[in-house]
């Protein structure tokens, strides 16, 4: 893959297009809550408390919550202007 960094800093040029990096917008507490909900949903699914369509929806939501907490970025937060990260001093 042909990639190089722009002289301006963190923008990356991939295949001739400029891609801006995702800024973290998920804080530590938010991350913990997301992972806890994801684990609970997984446990409920695999213990057959949640089955069928509800179980599959729970798995998808658990996957999304786990992914967004691991990458520290939630696309929905950018739409609403939410940022739960601690500010640097």
Structure notes:
The chain starts with a strand and ends in a 9-residue tail after the last helix. Strands 1-2-3 form a three-stranded antiparallel β-sheet, with no helix packed on it. It is mainly alpha-helical. The chain contains three helices and three strands, in the order βββααα. The model is unreliable at 1-8 (pLDDT under 50). The protein has one domain (22-89). 11% of the residues are buried. The chain has helices at 28-46, 52-71, 75-80, and strands at 3-5, 12-14, 17-19. This is Inner membrane protein YgaP-like transmembrane domain-containing protein.
Shape: extended
Order of strands side by side in the largest beta sheet?
Answer: 1-2-3
Distance between the termini: 37 Å
Major sheet details: 3 strands, antiparallel
Task: Enumerate how many helices there are, as a single number.
Answer: 3
Structural class based on helices, strands and sheet pairing: mainly alpha
Rounded mean pLDDT is 85
Order of helices and strands: EEEHHH
Q: Compute the number of strand runs.
A: 3
Task: Tell me roughly what share of residues is in helical segments.
Answer: 40-55%
Tally of separate domains: 1
Radius of gyration computed on alpha carbons: 17 Å
Low-confidence stretches: 1-8
Strand content: 5-15%
Transmembrane segments: 32-50, 56-80
Organism: Thermaurantimonas aggregans
Pfam families: YgaP-like_TM
Keywords: Membrane, Transmembrane, Transmembrane helix
């Amino acid at each position: 893959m042909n990639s190089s960094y722009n002289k301006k800093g963190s923008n990356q040029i991939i295949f001739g297009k400029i891609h801006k990096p995702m800024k973290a917008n998920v804080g530590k507490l938010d991350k913990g809550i997301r992972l806890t909900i994801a684990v609970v949903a997984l446990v409920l699914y695999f213990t057959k408390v949640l089955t069928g369509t509800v179980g599959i929806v729970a798995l998808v939501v658990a996957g999304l919550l786990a992914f967004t907490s691991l990458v520290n970025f939630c696309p929905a937060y950018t739409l609403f202007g939410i940022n739960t990260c601690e500010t640097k001093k």
